[in-house]
Design goal:
The protein has about 300 residues and is α/β, with parallel strands linked by helices. The chain contains twelve helices and ten strands. A hairpin with a 7-residue loop joins β7 and β8. It is globular and about 65 Å long. The chain binds adenosine monophosphate, FE2/S2 (inorganic) cluster and zinc ion (2 copies). The site of one zinc ion has 7 residues, from α12.
Length: about 300
């Protein structure tokens, strides 16, 4: 291993796409500086904003909460307990331990108290598990943030997630999704601002940050995600990345710079759901419709 790019110490990490190597201390410094630069570049939020960081218990979202806290932002964690057996139990515990160690505020909601656990809903819903689970998570992130005075929701989506989603959206020419594939979704019409500050960091880079920052996280994947098609495409992109380091970053950032600005968003007309008040395109939102369907069976 080479020497650190910044000091005389032996480097512990080599980042092939940038051709630089760092010791532990300078890797953390590089990570925080790059994160701050991304937040400023995309005008994500300022020091006066109140940010709710959605934490799953994985390396990305916990690293994000840790780093934003270190950068001096007003942050709190938000964990949605999904009731997926051992996986959810472990996820909740790591989030709690993480917050306790740093004296950070952490909110936890248990969806089975309002709806039902994900495995229970899965028995009754025909849609793929990840699709209704994602819908439920997005619903709670928005409504919880609003009700508790947070104006920004930050998620831990990383470069691997974003470049894979981009590849899938292009392969299927999902123009509607491409239009909305942005690092910042502005607030308005009942929505809080949603941001993805880790868009320039790979899964690996977040894992190294977590390791160097003593963050204990859950390594297991959700048992329902094993069949997700995206895993296959993620692997393909990683193979290309291995041959040509920097491809993922270029692929995604060039999309944002060169194509995104030309895509015109035709926003649907939003109204307040007649049951819960959350934004929707029809009288009753899809979350309340799901809740109603479930209440008839459960
Ligand atoms: P995923 O869709 O599982 O890759 O997660 C993407 C992001 O959504 C994570 O980085 C978190 O910010 C957020 N997230 C996922 N699961 C949860 C959860 N159970 N509770 C809170 N936030 C979550
Ligand atoms: Fe939602 Fe796995 S976390 S289906
Ligand atoms: Zn160094
Ligand atoms: Zn509703």
């Amino acid at each position: 291993m080479k020497k650190c790019y910044k000091c005389e110490t032996k480097a512990l990490v080599y980042l092939p796409q940038y051709r630089i190597a760092f010791c532990k201390e300078h890797y953390i410094e590089w990570y925080l500086r790059r994160l701050q630069h991304t937040i400023d570049e995309f005008k994500m939020f300022k020091k006066e904003d109140k940010i709710l960081v959605a934490v799953s218990g994985g390396k990305d979202s916990l690293s994000l909460l840790d780093a934003l806290y270190k950068l001096g932002y007003e942050v709190a964690g938000f964990h949605i307990y999904l009731g997926i057996g051992d996986y959810s139990e472990k996820s909740r515990v790591v989030c709690e331990e993480f917050a306790k160690k740093r004296s950070l505020k952490l909110y936890i909601i248990d969806i089975s108290q309002y709806l039902a656990s994900i495995p229970k809903i899965d028995e009754l819903e025909k849609r793929p598990t990840c699709s209704f689970c994602g819908q439920i998570k997005r619903y709670y992130m928005n409504s919880f943030a609003k009700q508790n005075g947070y104006n920004v929701v930050a998620t831990g989506h990383n470069l691997d997630d974003e470049s894979t989603t981009l590849l899938l959206n292009i392969l299927n020419w999902n123009i509607e999704y491409l239009i909305r594939q942005k690092p910042v979704l502005s607030e308005g019409e009942g929505f809080v601002r949603k941001v993805k500050p880790l868009l320039k960091f790979t899964e690996k880079e977040n894992a190294i940050y977590a390791l160097f920052s003593d963050i204990n996280y859950i390594e297991e994947e959700c048992p329902f995600s094993k069949n997700a098609t995206s895993i296959h495409y993620k692997k393909i992109l990683s193979l290309i990345e291995e041959k040509s380091p920097g491809t993922k970053l270029r692929f995604y950032l060039d999309f944002l710079r060169k194509l995104q600005p030309h895509l015109k968003e035709e926003k649907p007309k939003f109204m307040a759901c007649t049951i819960c008040g959350e934004p929707t395109v029809s009288q009753v939102c899809s979350f309340c419709k799901l809740k109603e369907r479930l209440s008839k069976i459960l």
